[in-house]
Amino acid sequence: QVQLVESGGGLVQPGGSLRLSCAASGFSFSTYAMSWYRQAPGKERELVARITRSGTSNYADALKGRFTISRDNAKNTVYLQMNSLKPEDTAVYYCNAESSPWVTYWGQGTQVTVSS
Question: What is the mean pLDDT of the chain?
Fold first, then answer.
């Protein structure tokens, strides 16, 4: 059974940091590209960051320099380090695993709220 379980979300003040984790099971993690998406209230889900099987990462232009995606294939886990958080980063953050356009899995999401 495929599972993607996100953790690490919560309430943080503007300027603060959070590290999200996504623990994967039930599929060959190292052969999948992994991504983080987010969805704010009333908005469409958007790509935050993606890391390929080989470790190449890319980011939404507006987030470059603040967010860092990484993966640990030995732990079947992908991370998202978020620094200098802003209120507009408030959203539900979702983990995604993809081996092809036809094979993709989603986690249940973790809430990140940036507020003073």
Answer: 96
